[in-house]
Amino acid sequence: MASAATFTMGENNEFTVTPAVIEAFNEYGYIIVRSLLNRPEVVKLQASLESDSELLKHSYGRDDGNGRISRMALWNHPGKDISGMIARSDKVAGTMEKLLGGEVYHYHTKLMMKEARTGGQFVWHQDYGYWYNNGCLFPDMGTVFIAIDKTDVANGCLKILERSHKAGRIAHIPVAGQVGADLERVGMIQKILPLVDVELEAGDALFFHCNLLHKSEQNNSDRRRWAFLIAYNRASNDPVIPHHHPQYTPLARVPNSEILNCQTDDVSGKDFMDPATEHRMK
C-alpha cells in the first residue's frame, strides 16, 4: 500500500519525524514506516521467539466466536529482552512520542499469533473503546503494529478505516463473541471513509491513533501471521483509576543499536497477563 501516510526509514537505522509525518498521522490517523526493523533485527527477533521462547510459554488461545483461535501473550512492562529493546528504542517509542506530542510510557505489548488455517478474526474496534474504561481520560494514546511475518489479505492483515479517528470514541458492545464497536455506527462511517488493507512485509510498522477503527479477518492461508503490538500512553494522561495496565511508569529509552546488541532472553519484570483476566486484556 502506497499513500501519503507511508514513509521509509532513513540512513543509519534512524527515522526522522518531520512535520509532514506528523501531519499525515493527524490527518489519516496512522502512518506506515517501511522497514522500521531492518532485516538483521527481524531475523534476530524471529530466532528469539522460535527457540523455545519464554514469551511463548506465557501465551494462550483466544476464541474468535467463529470456531477459530488466535494465540497471544500480553505483558505490561517492556523488560530487558529483544522485545523490550524494540519497545524502548528511539525509532519506536521516540517516534510515537513525537506523533502524540509529548512524553509517552509503555502501556502494554501484545504478541499476536494467527497460525495458518486456524488464526481467528477480530471485529471492528477502537483501542480507546476499551482504554476509556481504564481511567484514561483523553485519547492521547497509540499503538505500533510491527509485522514479524509478511501480513496480507490472505493471512488476515489489519483493515482500517482511514480518518475514522476523527469520529471520536464509538460505543463498544458485544459483537460476535467479542466486544467491538457498534456495527450500526461503523456501517455509517464505512459509507464515507476508505477501507484500507494494511499489507506489510516483515519489519514494516503501522503507527496508529487509539481511536482509529480497525479489524482483521481469519487466517485462511498456509502462512502464519505473527506481530507485535506495542501500546503507549502519554505521561500527561496518567490513568485516574488503578487497573490491569500500568499507571505512568517512566520509560527508559535506548538507542536503536540496542536491538541487535541485546544478548538476553530474560523476561523477568514484564508482568504477563493472567489468562483468567483475558477478557479485560485491552
From TrEMBL:
Cofactor: Fe cation
InterPro entries: Phytyl_CoA_dOase-like (IPR008775)
SUPFAM superfamilies in the record: Clavaminate synthase-like (SSF51197)
Designated name of the protein: Uncharacterized protein
The species this protein was found in: Amphimedon queenslandica
